[in-house]
Specification:
Elements lengths: L27 H12 L1 H8 L4 H13 L5 H9 L16 H12 L1 H13 L5 H5 L4 H8 L4 H10 L2 H10 L2 H13 L5 H14 L14 H9 L3 H14 L1 H10 L11 H8 L4 H8 L4 H9 L3 H14 L4 H20 L14
Helix pairs in contact: 1-2, 1-3, 2-5, 3-6, 5-6, 8-10, 9-11, 10-13, 11-13, 11-14, 13-15, 14-15, 17-19, 17-20
């Protein structure tokens, strides 16, 4: 006869563990900054090489401002990217020297120097330099009532993509006048630039951080136009041509447009294609010159080219605005690669501005 089993003694349930306070949410940029600070300089530099200039600036600024990152926070971020967190990280250094070395390794000394200044000094920038850190609408509001010559100097001082956005938000009657003045600028005396900096200071706050008087010129004007909406670009060039045909032609000669990719060497095209998403490429080619389409397809593998053509045909017609936006995105990638010395762009001008 089997013995009856003895019931296990009852135990008092353990009190519920206290829930740790939820960590404050952090943005994607901050998460990227923590990850890069964890990787080390060489690895972080390799990652930054594959990012656009604006993204590098955002992440670099976040890296420069990182202080006292907790281990729990680092683990949380790292777990979202890799399976485990390496015990040896670069966290805690978050110093200006680290950010400077990473950006120089990623972009080269010449290209990184200005960006480093914007990231490390931009936190306390004032005057003209502060405009580079403002929303384009705010910059447009500040300068729209100034004399066109002042507006021209301000836009020439900004980066081309930011200047293009500001110019697009100015009254139509001002655009061609301002761009002509940019094209005719041949530098500006430091004293005059300092006075202008003081004018801008009075619009919001502070002192200045000016280092260069080399602003303006036909190249700068062409670079701004390259990044503008196609209709605005054509309108401005047309109005400049009515007033100064020679200047208009000089600007156009230095502009690099999507169709000019047909003249770029094969190796540069192949490098560019590695930076462009397939969907973007397919959209851009819908409105491209046949020579550009042939150039692109012949620099892809046979299978990749066939898949791209099939995808383009299956999606049917596209809006002109979408095609132009895709082409501008590819041109922006080409500009970044050309500025970094990775590729060489031919076309209308002797160099890409």
């Amino acid at each position: 006869m089997a013995q009856a089993s003895t019931p296990a003694p009852k135990t008092r349930p353990a009190p519920p563990a206290k829930k740790a306070p939820a960590a404050e949410p952090i943005s994607g940029v901050e998460r990227a900054a923590i990850l890069l600070l964890s990787l080390g300089e060489a690895e972080a530099a390799e990652v930054l090489k594959h990012m656009g200039a604006k993204d590098v600036q955002k992440v670099g600024a976040a890296m420069a401002s990182m202080t006292n990152v907790s281990r729990d926070r680092a683990t949380e971020v790292m777990d979202s990217f890799v399976e485990e967190l390496d015990a040896q990280t670069s966290l805690g250094i978050g110093a200006d020297d680290y950010v400077r070395r990473v950006l120089v390794n990623a972009l080269g000394q010449d290209k990184a120097s200005g960006l480093v200044d914007r990231i490390l000094l931009g936190r306390n920038s004032k005057g003209l330099e502060a405009l580079k850190w403002m929303e384009t609408r705010a910059v447009a509001d500040i300068v729209r009532n100034e004399h066109p010559q002042i507006v021209a100097i301000v836009l020439a001082y900004l980066d081309p993509d930011q200047a293009a956005d500001v110019l697009a938000q100015l009254p139509e009657r001002m655009r061609s006048d301002v761009l002509m003045r940019i094209a005719r600028l041949d530098g500006i005396q430091p004293t005059a630039l300092r006075e202008l900096d003081e004018i801008m200071e009075k619009q919001f706050t502070g002192g200045g951080n000016l280092k260069s008087s080399s602003v303006g010129g036909v190249k700068v004007a062409a670079g701004i136009l390259n990044l503008m909406d196609s209709q605005l670009e054509q309108s401005i060039v047309g109005k400049i041509g009515e007033l100064d045909q020679e200047l208009s032609q000089r600007i156009q000669d230095l502009m690099f447009v999507f169709d000019d990719l047909a003249e770029v060497d094969d190796r540069s095209i192949q490098t560019l294609l590695r930076e462009v998403a397939t969907d973007t490429l397919g959209m851009a080619l819908k409105g491209a010159d046949p020579r550009v389409r042939d150039k692109i397809l012949k620099n892809m593998s046979k299978r990749a080219a066939e898949m791209l053509v099939e995808d383009m045909e299956s999606k049917g017609p596209a809006r002109l605005a979408d095609v132009e936006a895709a082409q501008k995105e590819i041109l922006a990638a080409a500009r970044r690669l050309a500025d970094a010395g990775t590729i060489v762009l031919g076309g209308k001008g002797e160099e890409f501005v």
